[in-house]
Amino acid sequence: MSSMNSPTPSVNPPSVSHDTLAAAAERRTSLLATTPQKTAAQLAAEHDKRQKFRRMVDPGITRPNSQDQAQRSLKVNATPLLTLLTIAENLLREPDNPKYQQFKPTNTVIKRDLVDPKGALEYAIELGFKAEVQNFQPYYKFHHRHMEDLQIGTKVLKEFVSLEVERQERIAKARAGEKAAREAAAERVKLAFMDDRKNKELRDEMDREQREGRAIVAGRRAALATSTPVPEPAMPGSGHSLGSPTTDQNELPGYERAGSYDNDG
Q1: In angstroms, what CA-CA distances link 29 with 8, 23, 69, 97, 231?
Q2: 110 is a domain residue
Q3: What b/e string do you get for 38-64 counting C-beta neighbours within 10 Å, with b at 16 or more?
Q4: Total structural domains in the chain?
Q5: Is residue 198 part of a domain?
Q6: Distances in Å between the alpha carbon of 225 and those of 174, 215, 216?
Q7: Residue 265: band (very low, low, confident or very high) from pLDDT cuts 50, 70, 90
Q8: Looking at the domain assignment, is residue 230 inside a domain?
Q9: How many other CB atoms sit within 10 Å of the CB of residue 105?
Q10: pTM of the predicted model as reported, rounded to 2 decimal places
Q11: Residue 107 in domain
Q12: What pLDDT does 167 receive?
């Protein structure tokens, strides 16, 4: 009982010293001071550059090319990534890696996905890749002074890929729904056909039974009609009626005629 009545000790959060808070505020202030703030003109120029990249994707890449060719130029290894986006992201992730600083236009994949489709190579050039020749071989090499263009163009590519993925998912769902609806309709038609066939079989069976019944009745009637008629037996005393008023006197029995003579005498 005493332990239950004892007051619960209060737990106070650890206190933060004023020096710690001041140091954190100073770090935030220094970080903001070192981060360059863009002017209105710079923001407007960035907006114009972003709009230019968007127009280069659509209609620049998507409309002039066939759907299959456009999809190939926007995908790598069946993943929803643009070939351009793969190149740009690799370069942003490892800007000092020489492997990602250039690409060869005669490469099979690059030629198929960047050189042949209309607008794709122009987008890479706008990102900062310039044509050069090394050891008599053509290359497109990135120049680091275009790093800001690379960042803006990469953001636009990500936006487009995200929208394209959503569109493809909607199309896939719509097609799946249409397929399910077609299959359901086909199943209903199949069931209706089976029901109609069963009903027809039942009607045919009933008609057959009725025809057989009528044939049996007709056969019996024909047999009765063709059989020899049996004469009906005559009733006893037929042809004579007692006390008939038309009886002739001459037809009376003899004893009745004799009696009449006695009455006259």
Answers
A1: 42, 10, 51, 34, 139
A2: yes
A3: eeeeeeeeeeebeeebeebbeebbbee
A4: 1
A5: no
A6: 75, 15, 14
A7: very low
A8: no
A9: 15
A10: 0.53
A11: yes
A12: 82
